[in-house]
Write a structure and sequence with these properties.
single chain; 245 residues; mainly alpha; Glutaredoxin; Glutathione S-transferase Yfyf (Class Pi), Chain A, domain 2; 2 domains; 4-stranded mixed beta sheet; globular; binds glutathione
């Protein structure tokens, strides 16, 4: 199997952690999506990571990919068992993917890190403060009421747990940390997810590539021990983003 994507994307990280939890063999093409080639557009029409290629199956969207992995490779399961809990897990994952995606990825991480580095944009500090001081704390209040006292959301680790911990890594990379005095259950739960070996591995790769430029990431990940694909869907110069246009 091939994953196009890298551990600095919370969506790609979710898939990479799921693959490791299931002990599956895969290679990574750790491109930054804005640098994708025309071949990347053919496998990812929104020019987004992650993409999973399993034989002749090409899949987009981290949630779709994780559900496929869980059905095709059921052990260990990454969804709870009962239909009601499965539905709850999907909603919690969706909240993370859409609300935390909007706040942490588009309005914080992209504004502070990706935009200035890739597109030479200047951060709008007032817009960032609205996220860090108002909207993200409100989202944390909502999450805190649902965070588990111990263990994970539904007993065993599931995709939704991975999703939350993945977004909070990007918040941290952009300088925002969960305050354990204000959101103690969330802080402790996210720390438990980060300590799961497959997630801890993803942090090691994240640290290896976070400072590297797009075209240096494959070498940085190879040096850290990852299996990197021989060919790449990435280019040397950015082509742009549907979202940031
Ligand atoms: N719903 C998608 C979202 C994927 C996504 O937005 N990925 C970001 C990286 S964090 C991306 O590829 N952005 C490139 C762009 O929008 O131009 C999923 O769950 O996979």
């Amino acid at each position: 199997m091939l994953v196009i994507g890298n551990h600095v994307s919370p969506y790609a990280r979710k898939v990479l952690v799921a693959l490791d939890l299931k002990g599956l063999d895969y290679e990574v093409d750790p491109i930054v999506p804005f640098y994708g080639t025309d071949a990347f557009t053919r496998v990812s029409p929104l020019r987004r990571i992650p993409v999973l290629i399993d034989g002749d199956l090409v899949l987009n969207d981290s949630t779709v990919i994780c559900e496929y992995l869980d059905e095709a490779y059921p052990e260990p399961p990454l969804m709870p068992r009962s239909p009601a809990d499965r539905a709850r897990a999907r909603w919690l994952e969706e909240y993370a993917d859409s609300r935390l995606g909007d706040l942490i990825i588009w309005r914080l991480f992209y504004a502070r890190i990706v935009g200035p580095r890739v597109f030479k944009t200047v951060p709008d500090e007032a817009a960032i403060a609205q996220v860090t001081d108002v909207e993200l704390p409100a989202a944390l209040d909502w999450i805190e009421a649902r965070a588990p006292d111990e263990g994970f959301l539904f007993g065993n680790l599931c995709t939704a747990d991975i999703s939350y911990a993945a977004f909070f890594r990007n918040a941290l990379l952009a300088g925002w940390r969960i305050d354990p005095a204000r959101w103690p259950r969330t802080a402790a739960w996210v720390a438990r997810v980060e300590a799961v070996p497959a997630f801890a591995t993803s942090i090691r790769y994240e640290q290896a590539i976070v400072g590297a430029r797009g075209h240096e990431r494959a070498d940085a990940m190879r040096a850290a021990g990852a299996r990197i694909s021989a060919t790449s869907f990435g280019d040397a110069t950015p082509k742009g983003s549907i979202m940031l246009r």
